[in-house]
Amino acid sequence: MEINTIMSQQLLELQQTIQMSVLNKAMHADTEGLTQLLASIPEAQHPYLGKSFDVSV
Where does the source fall among the domains of life (predicted)? Predict the structure, then answer.
């Protein structure tokens, strides 16, 4: 194999590794943000729990 071919292949592998690392960190940050957002939302009352509905037609 030619040295340029070997270096080119290694560069592509390095780029893929860096892209996966950046993607992983971005997903982790998004997950943390979403978790914090969901934790900050107050609990809502159930829309019909405890109420009775007349379904007779």
Answer: Bacteria
d(CA 43, CA 27): 26
pTM of the model: 0.54
The 10s digit of each residue's pLDDT in 38-53 is 889 887 777 777 666 6
Task: From residue 9, give the alpha-carbon distance in Å to each of 2, 17, 20, 35.
Answer: 11, 12, 17, 39
Q: SS3 of 12, please?
A: helix
Residue with tokens 């997950």: 31
Nearest partner of 34 among 46, 45, 26, 24, judged by Cα: 26
